[in-house]
Amino acid sequence: MRRKVMVLLLIVLALFSLTGLAADKKLTVISGWSGQEMDAFMPVLREFEKETGIRVDYQIYRAEDLAVLLPAQFDSKTAPADVIFMWAWFVNKQAQNGHVLEMTGLLNESDFVPGILDAVKSGGKLWGGPYTGKIKPGFWYRKSFFKQHGLAVPTTWDEFVDLCARIKKIPGVRAPIASGNGVGWPLSDVTEHFIATFGGPAMTRDLIAGKMSWTDPKVRAVFENRLVPLLKAGYFSEPIEWTMAADLWWAGDYALYFMGSWITGMVKDPADLGVFTLPGARGLVFATDYAFVPAYTKYPAEARKLLAFLATRGQTLQVAAGGHIATYAGAPLDAYPAVDRGIAALLKGVEALPDLDDTIGGEWQPAFWDQLKLLWVSPARVGEVLETLQRKAGK
Amino acid sequence: MRTLRGRALFFVPALALLAVFVVYPVVNTVWLSFFTSDGEFALLGKYAAILSQPEMFDSRGFVRGFPYGALVHNVMWIVIHLPLTAGLGLALAVILREIKGGAIVKSIVFLGMVTPMVVGGVILRFLFDGNVGILPSLLSLIGLPRRTLTAYPDTALFSLIIGSLWLWTPFSMILYSAGLETIPDYVYEAAVIDGASAVRAFFAITVPMLRPVTSVVITMTFLWVLKIFDIVYVATMGGPGGASNVLALQMYMYAFREFDANSAAVVATLLMLVALAVSIPTFRSVRGEQQ
Amino acid sequence: MRGTSIFARRKSSTVALYVAAGLAALIWLIPFMGVFMASIRPLSEISRGWWKFEQFNPTLRNYAGAWNHPAAPLGKGMLNSLRVAVPATILPLAIASIAAYGFARFRFRLRDLLFMSVVALMTLPQQMIAVPIYRIMRGLGAVDSFAGLVLVHAAWGLPWIMYFMRNYFTTVPIEVEEAAKVDGASDLRVFLQIVMPMSLPAVASAAVLQFMWVWSDFFLALILVYSPDRLLATQRVPLLRGVYHVDWGVLSAGSIIVMAVPIMVFALMQRYYIRGMVGWTSK
């Protein structure tokens, strides 16, 4: 019996050695886009395949999970893909440890929105390439909904609060503003909008740089005087899984939804969409996606080609799908669908800000999301939330 | 061969595997817990530092409510879960024994045990969701607001505890079922002759005779609750604001999010010490057997 | 055994018992139903509650989506889980049974102490070995390999299987073995040809339990395996929530697929599973 067991074991162990079959040249791209977002991305990859003849595989992996897995893989000098989309701070950090293939000279700075490459530059070298970005412009609404209930876009803070109060009274509406949730980032987007509007772009930048404390009275003022009263009045819904929230908002359970510009690619009737910023907004978050090539890729030359393609021609192709704004200056305006041209216009006259939690990153980011989830359901705890945020930022 | 060497070979593969993959890591973890991340020897210094972290113990909780810290959350989990799982398991074992079709219901109840904990987390997330889940709707029937119970600090942990009851009570039920089978008929027959009712017999005979089973149920449940990780990871990730954090999750956070192996080792060692303490009755009974 | 049914019972008590049993069945079915509904119905139908049946358009689309999901194809995940669970059941069973026999039958000075240590190992949480195991595997170059995960699961299963099998062996009457030994058989032959065949029910129970536990494991897999195509079924479930897009339908279908294997194993081997649970913990 023992011999049979041994033979069985040997067979099983032999099966293991069959892993890692040699493959012909094939690049793998990893990003977190799935569902509709992925469907919008695939044509860009197919175009690269057509033009260069190099096969490209796509795999989905959430950034939060990559943040845990990649360092471990890099330690063992392996990488799961040849081009990986990740937060800019992460790219820089890995570059510091020598895990990233240097890209200096691959891209021409003047081809892009000014300053956009800075996020993936460190030590005077370029470590990644930019892709399209998304603006988080403000509160989206259905024009038909507003028309039906005789509502108007607010131009002052008081009008905004008024609007919320009016919407709350409409029968069938559960709350004026739908709060999207996921791992937490839709909440952070709204919060950053409030900070940029009432604290100003300078506050956003100072918080990112760690120059301002979260417990600073000016920061507290933004929270306590603007965000918390709305939460306490029940104008925000409790956090709902954000794609479900989008469905419910579209169906009329909620009137306003703070979301990024990618929502234009997600609704059935983009022509019915309207958006307004918080009155007085001085800065808008323009969140760019960045990609890098790990140093352990098996096909460095091809990977660089792909990265360059994505950063330039890829962007022009991508914006046609809607919901993306190009950081590549070479993408013409008519490459955009009509709705998005309007979004790009929103950026005029206000400062383009980096996404706060994506830029700070590290363990502070999930802590930020977690604390906001708490704030949303227990707005009275704002003081403690800010203290915790500051404590974690100091680590 | 009946030689000594021949006999020793019976143990070698097992002990070798254990030594490398279990014993050495355990010792290594305890060792790590005595050092700070800079490599300085601190003996219990790290323990003091960790235990004073709000993630582990948050005294503000006693003033404003959840979170109380992972340590307190685990204690709460045990205090609530243990008696309920033992009581429910026993009740189910007794009830399902008495009726026709009890075996079928037992198999249904078993769904809880057979479910991988990760899936359990998904089920819980669903069950308590304000929009899709059934529990908030049921609660709204008795006047409570309909909301996602896992999103609020004061209900997140309790929701998970109830969920864990759903997963683990089948275990208690089978053990009690088996135990009930071992009570001989004549004991009950004597009770009937004495004029006792079914209820009295239950408390005066059944429960005391099942004490060894109860002791096993308590020990195993305690050990299981200490290690809970999967459900929390999937359902709430310890949130909101750490209100459903548990020791096993916190250990994971230290080890694989903050890359702080020493803090993780402290939490793991604490878990181990409690596990060993709880298992003392088991050790005693094993030693009793051996003699 | 008639147990407490010896007592006379009022009709109302019988009714109460059936109601209680029915309640129990409902309580254990309903959570499962929620997920099941989400897996076969489009999200828009259930976004206000799955028990609303005004619109009912069942579809198997979510199952196909979960099976072939680009980020976390469950088909591959199940295969990977099998590749780990099967060896991780066979290996420790073989090794532990041999050692357990030694603990049951041989007498030597350190025996009791050694056995107690093994029992102690049984109580430890997996967290105790997480970080060092990761480092060991890294040193061996076995991170992200199935072989490494199998070894860890095998080692982790050894203590409880040894405890279980040893308890079982002590209940096997020793006369047959002694007779064989008088005839000149070696310890090994006695074990393999006499004791093991008699112990198949216990082996079956231990195998079922170990298989279910390895299949359901998440923590060790989370630490040791991360290439997207190597992920096990349990790991893929949380991943079915995409970054930006959570498809509850696909997530539920995925959960049910992952659950299907333990349920099938349980359905086929229920008796062994139960005997295993009871036997492992009591006597």
Features:
heterotrimer, B: 291 residues, mainly alpha, 16 helices, 73% helix, 0% strand, globular, C: 283 residues, 13 helices, flat
Q: Radius of gyration of chain B, Cα only, in angstroms?
A: 23 Å
Strand content of chain C: under 5%
Uncertain residue ranges of chain C: none
Note the beta-strand portion of chain B.
under 5%
Structural class of chain B: mainly alpha
Number of helices of chain B: 16
How much is the average pLDDT of chain B? Answer: 87
The description of the largest β-sheet of chain B is: none
Oligomer: heterotrimer
**Largest contact between protein chains?**
B-C, 110 and 99 residues
Distance between the termini of chain B: 28 Å
First-last Cα distance of chain C: 20 Å
Number of strands of chain B: 0
Poorly predicted tracts of residues of chain B? none
Silhouette of chain B = globular
Largest sheet of chain C: none
Question: Which sequence of SSEs, written as H and E, runs from N to C of chain B?
Answer: HHHHHHHHHHHHHHHH
The Rg value of chain C, from CA coordinates, equals: 24 Å
What does the secondary structure layout of this molecule look like, with pairings?
The complex is a heterotrimer of chains A (395), B (291) and C (283).
Chain A: H1 2-16, E1 26-31, H2 35-52, E2 55-60, H3 63-75, E3 83-86, H4 88-96, E4 121-122, E5 125-126, E6 129-136, E7 138-142, H5 143-149, H6 157-169, E8 175-178, E9 180-181, H7 185-209, H8 217-232, E10 240-241, H9 242-251, E11 254-259, E12 273-276, E13 283-292, H10 300-319, H11 338-346, E14 351-353, H12 356-360, H13 364-377, H14 382-394
Parallel strand pairs in A: 1-2, 1-3, 8-11, 9-10, 13-14
Antiparallel strand pairs in A: 3-13, 4-5, 6-13, 7-11, 7-12
Helix pairs in contact in A: 2-10, 7-8, 7-13, 13-14
Chain B: H1 4-32, H2 45-51, H3 61-64, H4 70-98, H5 102-109, H6 111-114, H7 117-127, H8 134-141, H9 153-181, H10 185-193, H11 198-209, H12 211-226, H13 230-235, H14 247-257, H15 261-278, H16 280-290
Helix pairs in contact in B: 1-15, 4-5, 4-9, 4-12, 7-9, 9-12, 12-15, 14-15
Chain C: H1 11-40, H2 43-46, H3 61-67, H4 74-105, H5 111-122, H6 130-140, H7 146-171, H8 175-182, H9 187-198, H10 200-216, H11 219-224, H12 233-239, H13 248-281
